[in-house]
Amino acid sequence: MHPDMDRFEKTNGQFEAAIAECRALFQKKLHDYRASWRILRPASLTDQLFIKAKRIRSLEIKKESLVGEGIRPEFVALINYGIVGLIQLEKGFADTVDIDNDEAMRLYDHYAQEALELMKKKNHDYDEAWRGMRVSSYTDLILTKIERIKEIENLSGATLVSEGIDANYMDIINYSVFGLIKLKA
C-alpha cells in the first residue's frame, strides 16, 4: 500500500463532502427553477463562470463584501456551473427547458463522478500539491482556465495543441472543490 494512502483517502472524502454540499444546492435550485440553465449558450455560460471567479478575486483583494456573501458560495457556484458546462457540451444548448429534474440530477452525478476520478488521478501524480497552495492561487488558475475557454470559443474549437473546453471545466471544478476544502478547514 502507498504510504500516503491515508492522505489520499482523506482528500477523497473531503472532495465527496464538498460535492455533496454543491449537489444539495443544485437540487434545491432545480426544484425552484427547473433546468433553466439549458438555454445558456456556451459564451453565456463562460461569462457566468467569469463573474463568479472575478467576484472571488475581488473579495480576496478587498477583504470585504458589501452584499454580505462570502467566497464559499462562489466556489459552490463555480462547481455547479462547471458541471452545467459539461452537461451543455454533451447536450448542446436548448431554446426551452428540455430535461426533467431527474435527468438533470443523473447528468450532474455523472460529471461529478468524472471530476472525482480525475482528481484522484491528478492528486496521485501531483502528490497532494494542492494542499500547499493558497486559495488565491486557485482563483487565479480558475480565471486562467476561463480565459482559455474564451479563446477556444473564439477559435470555434480549432485549437492546435490545447486541451478542450471539457478539460478546463474539469479543472475549474477541481480547483473550486479544493477552495471549498481549504476554506472549511
Task: Put the structure in a nutshell.
With 185 residues, this protein is an all-alpha fold.
Description:
This protein is mainly α and 185 residues long. The protein contains six helices and no strands. The longest helix is centred in the N-terminal third of the chain and has 29 residues. It starts with a helix and ends with a helix. The mean pLDDT is 93.
Write down the overall mean pLDDT. Answer: 93
User: What is the number of E strands?
Assistant: 0
The fraction of residues assigned to DSSP E strands is under 5%
Helix-strand string: HHHHHH
Biggest pleated-sheet summary: none
Q: Span from first to last CA?
A: 27 Å
Write the layout of secondary structure elements.
Layout: H1 5-33, H2 42-62, H3 72-91, H4 101-126, H5 135-154, H6 165-184
Helix pairs in contact: 1-3, 1-4, 1-6, 2-3, 2-5, 3-4, 3-6, 4-6, 5-6
